[in-house]
Amino acid sequence: QVHLVESGGGLVQAGGSLSLSCVASGSVLRYPVYVLNWYRQAAGKQRELVAAISRLGNTNYADSVKGRFTISRDNAKKTLYLQMNNLKPEDTAVYYCNLQDYWGEGTLVTVSS
C-alpha cells in the first residue's frame, strides 16, 4: 500500500507561481523506479495528465503547460514536485499525484484573473 499526500495548492493571481509537492509513504522501496505523474481535474472536466517523470528523469508535459511547469523528483525524500510559473485562470483545478494505481487526495489550485 502506498500513501500519497499533496500540498502547496492555494489561490494565486494570473502570472503568479506555485510549487506543489507530493510525499509518498508506505510500500515505497521501489519508489525510484516508478514513473510519477501529476494530473489535474477542473470542475466539470475529465482528469488530465499534466506532467510525468521517469525513473531516469525524462519528462513529458501536456502542451498546455509546456514552458511554464516543471516536474521533478527527489527519490531520497520520496517526494514529487511540480513548479508552476506564469499561471493562467485555465490552470485552476485540483491537482493529483499518481504512482501506478495510487492517487493522492489532491490539492486545489485557483488562479484568479
Which key phrases capture this entry?
seven-stranded mixed β-sheet, four-stranded antiparallel β-sheet, mainly beta, single chain, 113 residues
- Principal-axis shape equals globular
Number of E strands: 11
Structural class: mainly beta
Q: Return Rg in Å.
A: 13 Å
Poorly predicted regions: none
The H-and-E topology, N to C, reads as EEEEEEEEEEE
Number of helices: 0
Instruction: Give average pLDDT, whole number.
Output: 96
Portion of residues in beta strands equals: over 45%
Largest sheet: 7 strands, mixed
- Give the termini distance in whole angstroms: 40 Å
Fraction of residues in H or I helices: under 10%
How would you describe the overall organization of this protein?
The chain is mainly beta and 113 residues long. It is built from no helices and 11 strands. The protein has strands at residues 2-7, 10-13, 18-26, 36-41, 48-53, 59-61, 69-74, 79-84, 93-99, 102-103, 107-112. The strands form 2 sheets. Strands 2, 4, 5, 6, 9, 10 and 11 form a 7-stranded mixed sheet that branches. Strands 1-3-8-7 form a 4-stranded antiparallel sheet, with no helix packed on it. Strand 7 (69-74) and strand 8 form a beta hairpin.
